[in-house]
Amino acid sequence: MARVLVTGGAGFIGSHLVDALVERGHEVVAFDNLDPAAHPQPPKWPAYVNPKCRYVLGEVRDKEALRRALDGVEVVFHHAAAVGSGISMIDIGRFVEVNSLGTANLLELAIEKRERIKKVIVASSMTVMGEGTYECGFHGPYYPFLRPAEQLARNDWEVRCLQCGALSKPLPMAEDRPLLPLTIYGLTKMDQELETMLVGKFYKIPVVAFRYFSVYGPRQSLTNPYTGVIARFGTRLIMGKAPLVYEDGKQLKDVIHVRDVVRANLRAMECEAADYQVFNLGNGVGLSVWRIAELIAEKLGSPIRPVLTGQYRAGDARHGWAEVSKARSVLGWEPSLSAENGFADLCTWLRALPKEQLEDAIHAYESAERGSEMRPVAV
Description:
Number of domains: 1
Number of helices: 12
CATH class: Alpha Beta
Strand order of the largest sheet: 3-2-1-4-5-9-14
CATH architecture: 3-Layer(aba) Sandwich
Structural class: alpha/beta
Number of strands: 18
CATH superfamily: NAD(P)-binding Rossmann-like Domain
Largest sheet: 7 strands, parallel
Helix content: 25-40%
Radius of gyration: 20 Å
Mean pLDDT: 93
């Protein structure tokens, strides 16, 4: 058994990872700053914290606090991050400090302790790749930037070939495609990923990076601007409100339950073949946003239908789902929960939450949308 550090260990994914590590007999330390974006204030450890884990309150920007948390540690799961694509375009300095500099602090300390550190596993994001992968029938595969504002303003949603303007076919996003982040958040996640790979290879510290697609499940923050459409749709439906869908609802997204993300992390901890590699983590299926809203309503037994708002968000990618064959072949990992089963699990959790918490969540997200440069724009 190993001594393991989970940064962001009181958060959504980190806390589930802590539970799984404790269950397997590891000695676990969770390091977390209880960010107000994800946790109630004043700072207080969540009710779900694991009694067999040691929790340390601290910032990854505080190198000395991080040094103390790393004492005796053999494996690091780095999940601490500032999150939220829209808010990152406003709060640029904090995102760079927490994500890029915070990871640099961790890596410098890992170098100091490299005789003991056996592996560092970092949580990256599909946002490092930006817009999806597409294929033009005349010009082949390509990797576009944002759809032009004038195109979105006329309700022309699909991606068009940069050379001929033809409608393009979306393809799964593979790990070896170009990295073209569209936001500061995506840029800093790219920093985390590339820093980790570069330092790990140079100092021969085994490292792994996972590019998460849309992760959902119990414990995800409902007031964080990063919260995905799945939890937002479920929250609105429970409160008797229709899910609000942007564009035409045909955007394809890849959703993965937190349980499958944890399983992949545990496999990477044990798998030498995964060292110095980057893996996509998704279900490997593109699911339309409209269908996501319908499925959530079905699982909640709600008759309320989604509503197309006639709005879009500047900066949103159109389509994106993961090519996961690499994780299958190298890690022996397979997503185990379909969207239908995973959504049922999420809805069970949402139903048990106090109504006041759901109301606060709806208010917080609406406020974040209004205050962001990435806010919905009526068309």
